[in-house]
Amino acid sequence: MKTKLLTLIFLLMSLSGCALAKAEVPTVDQDNESTPIGIYIFIKQDFFSNEVPFDIDDPKQTFFIQEEKLGENNETYNHSRSSGQFFESHTHIQVSDVEDKTVFTASLPVFSDNPQFFRLNIIYKDNQNQYVTQPGNLYFMEYGGGFKFEHSTTETINGVSKKKTIVFDITLKPFDPLETLQLIMMDENYEIIDTVVVSDQFNIEIQDHIRYVLIEETRLNIEQERVKTLTMVDAKTIKTNQPYFQSIITSSKHPQGYVIGLSLFKDDSN
What do you get for the CA distance between the two ends of the chain, in Å? Predict the structure, then answer.
């Protein structure tokens, strides 16, 4: 096998792959008692595999929800929550006199070694305040570039109309499966002090004598070439109450999920 060194980047993760076209889901703009509050994506290993019903208490499921909650003083506020395999996610809420708009953008990893299907399900709440889902399109993750769903409703109170809009904008990003992940510890002269292979434990304590940390990801591409990506972290930026965090895209067969949070921290309590 050949080994390629792709790039050395500072505090950024390199993403490989081509730009993919995005499927547009038709915009809905109508008065409707059933207003979407979220999205649930079920990832299927093959076309015929059984789909698992939505369960908000299952942290392995991939979903986003925004719903109104009642505060201590009976005031209402919007509460957002996302879980599962999303990364690079962001929720933007825009409030005005004429429209309240929520836009959730996120990415999902697509692995070169294991093309998959995923089902888009829209989440609602029924009259019993229970979560229900409406099955949507089935996408093939190798070819689809993502999708954008938008739904609008109009409320009229005391003769004044106001629009409420929710948008889900999901992009599929291609990745080669992660083969190894290791941390290379260096001093201020860039001399290697230690090398730590990361496998099960993703919360790593950084000692005071470490100045730089290289996060080395080795991936196996479709041509069976090993491709390395390096991220340089200055350990001086890592504080007791301010760890360094990076999302690591693993593989479709990783036991802890497609997206793992790597946290580098210090303990100055002693």
Answer: 46
Length of the chain in residues, anyone?
270
What's the pLDDT tens digit per position in 3-52?
A: 444 434 333 333 333 333 455 544 444 344 478 999 999 987 777 778 89
DSSP labels, 5-44: EEEEEES-----S-----EEPPPEES--S----EEEEEEE
Tokens of 269: 């309590």
- The model carries a pTM of 0.72
Residue 86 CA: distances (Å) to CA of 98, 125, 154: 31, 22, 30
pLDDT tens digits, 95-114: 899 999 999 999 988 887 77
CA 251 remoteness from chain centre: 14
Burial class (CB in 10 A: 0-12, 13-18, 19+), 16: middle
Which tokens is 9 given? Answer: 């980047």
Joined tokens for residue 125: 């709440």
Residues 6+ away with beta carbon under 8 Å from 3: 225, 226, 227, 228
pLDDT at residue 144, rounded to an integer: 52
Count of CB atoms within 10 A of residue 144's CB? Answer: 19
